Amino acid sequence: MFDRxxxxxxxxxxxxxxxxxIAILFPVYYMFNISLKLPKDIYRTPSLLPVNATLKxxxxxxxxxxxxxxxxxxxxxxxSATFVSVVFSSMAAYSLVRLKYLYRDWxxxxxxxxxxTPSGLLFIPLSVIVARLQLGNTLHGLIFVYLTFAAPLSxxxxxxxxxxxxxxxxxxxxxxxxxxxxxxxxxxxPLAAPGLVAVSVFTFTAAWNELLYALIFITSPDLQTVPVxxxxxxxxxxxxxxxxxxxxFLAALPVxxxxxxxxxxxxxxxxxxxxxx
Amino acid sequence: MVRNESxxxxxxxxxxxxxxxxxxxxxxxxxxxxLLVIYPFFFAIYISFTxxxxxxxxxxxxxxxxxxxxxxxxxxxxxxxTIVLVGAVQSIKLFIGLGLAVLLxxxxxxxxxxxGLILLPWAMPAFVAFIxxxxxxxxxxxxxxxxxxxxxxxxxxxxxxxxxxxMPSVITASVWRGFPFWVISFLAAMQNIPxxxxxxxxxDGANAWQRFLHITMPGxxxxxxxxxxxxxxxxxxxxxxxxxxxxxxxxxxxxxFPVLAYYGLQSLRIGEAAAVSVSMLPVFAVLALIVAVxxxxxx
Lengths: 277, 299
Prior knowledge:
The complex is a heterodimer.
Chain A: H1 7-35, H2 39-43, H3 56-63, H4 67-98, H5 104-116, H6 119-132, H7 139-164, H8 168-175, H9 180-191, H10 193-209, H11 212-217, H12 226-233, H13 241-261, H14 263-274
Chain B: H1 11-47, H2 64-70, H3 73-104, H4 111-123, H5 126-137, H6 143-150, H7 166-190, H8 195-203, H9 208-237, H10 240-245, H11 257-266, H12 270-278, H13 281-296
Helix pairs in contact in B: 2-12, 3-7, 3-9, 4-7, 5-7, 7-9, 9-13, 11-12
């Protein structure tokens, strides 16, 4: 960046980048490749190319395994968890950044510690609590439980965003007669839109991808989310790899598109929230 | 900072109104946290001291669960495996993370494109990534065995998920899925370092390595520390990698704490399962405390 890049440096840089690109893309490609193959082609005529490509696996997934129901469950859980979490956390972040009250700093610290509490520690007591609340084996219970990781992270990130927005505009609006609440949702929230996008992407994908809680709390097949449905396919003795990879590809596609579209906000969000530099 | 001075209404009542609003707005989140994190947190510790099973509350048994689990080979294995797994994965990610961040901070064309590409493994759902790696390592239908055999590097299939190779395989897959977070965080921090520092250092004759050591590293030190700690919490807690690729096997070769606790829950002996996961607590508490201090430092 600061010396002039010589030609051999350029060669070195781009060679390294291409190697990294291969390491990143090959597994993704192979997943897609296998998803287009029938078992006989996977085992008898293995190849790195999609020989005898067919969409049969995708068809079976939908017709034999009710994959559309899994997709619908995941979509419902992830979007509900995202909505509830973003509403709660933007309110809380506003309160913690802009208003002053007793124990405010302690609540801020509590949220940070909550964000750092691993699910490995919580899933056992939560399984007892969720059962007691009659929420076992329901999608609502799952949404509820997903708030454990979604809301603290969102709040923490949004606090970073709100802090970075100067308070002057809100104060001006309040001088002009707006109430605090109006200043919050008419001035601050629109200005924090990139933060809200980043937080929504993080929450949606985290809920969409979540396996452990879903594995524990959901027992009926018709309520299974995508990660549970797919991981159930690999617990048997015979792996139908084509089918599994078709499901994996369909599961990965929406979140990868989401990340690609929101890349700028996600990277900003990482820099601003999770890891304040 | 004193706010709201522009208001003409009496100051104290407005301040009281603001405090009230503050509590109201933060209340839903705090209620969620109390019910879903704080209460379960202490409940887990309580359960670990009882002989609770599914269907029975159980009674207080003191340290009996802890004494029982430390004698079990799967628990002993999970201590050393977790240390090896986390230690290896984190060191490799630190190395790759710093290296690629420095690389992307050079005069690279289409940096936006490369950054997006590097984000890809992290954008993939973890369960998809680890199932795909299980396939890549598979003896039949796996890409690596196909390549090795076609290049005549091996004569028979290599069992990458065997007792000896399972851990390196899980480490490889975990690094692949986890390194983007490090690269992107480090790169963001590096781009905040003022250019002038590098320019004056270059004028003073500092070479690339010296500039990295004396300008880049101090500039990103804080971010590096926080990334290491947060990622260590995630990696120690990671369930998917081991569960999907090996299930903790063969014969406990890759057994880690979260997977062992999950098996405990499956076996319905909740007290013991809770004891397994609570034994991770001291480590997490220390890590979380250091992260919290560092994240709040500049406030």
